[in-house]
Design goal:
The protein is an alpha/beta fold and about 220 residues long. Helix content is about 45%, strand content about 25%. The chain is built from nine helices and seven strands, in the order αβαβαββααβαββααα. Bound molecules: S-adenosylmethionine (SAM).
Length: about 220
Amino acid sequence: MIDSRMQAVMNFVSFGSRVADIGADHGYLSIELAKSGRAAKIIATEKNIYPCEAALKNISAAGFGEAIDVRLGDGLQVLTAGEVDTICIAGMGGALIRKILDDAPEVVQSARQLILQPMNGVKKIRAWLAENDWTIDDEDLAESAGIIYEIISAVKVPSAPKSFKRDSSPLLKKFFAQRVEKLQRVLSEMSKSPAARASDKFAAVQAEIDTLRRLC
Ligand SMILES: C[S@@+](CC[C@H](N)C(=O)[O-])C[C@H]1O[C@@H](n2cnc3c(N)ncnc32)[C@H](O)[C@@H]1O
């Protein structure tokens, strides 16, 4: 039922953890988590009424009406501190994910793991994690409908360093190549303005392209 993007999110959920699926939409991630037996508790949240109703319907049809607690509300506001160990936020923009995290510091602080899959603005997420003392303990890539997504797992208390799933992903070179293409489009737009061409950002984008090309 879930695609490889959501499967990659699910793979990062620690066994036995109490999980919040924020912005659950259809509820598929929560349903697969319940099926897998990975989570000790699942709370699926939605800000909007129609997806919330869809989640309730799908969860009930899958037979997990009792096992999955569905809550309507904004971000982490519908949780209390200490209620979950793992917070999954997938399929939203990086800026929105940051806002959801910033708006509920006590809930975030009480969690042990964040699993984040931004649709864009991944740098914003990495910066937020660093600023807020979260350590990225694993990363993966997943391709769905031709788009490669980045999935990040971060923890408060890192264990011994290990190799990231992403580094051995068969998608890695393709992901770098797609990123080069995207950055080239940015450079080409910037090139139209002499001021933009002379900016630090232009040089930074060019440097990132050069680095990625060496890795492709
Ligand atoms: C594109 S869907 C992603 C659904 C699912 N998480 C996935 O990865 O496929 C984003 C969902 O987040 C919900 N959403 C947007 N802002 C939210 C917020 N502040 N709090 C909770 N849910 C939110 C939307 O209603 C929508 O159902």
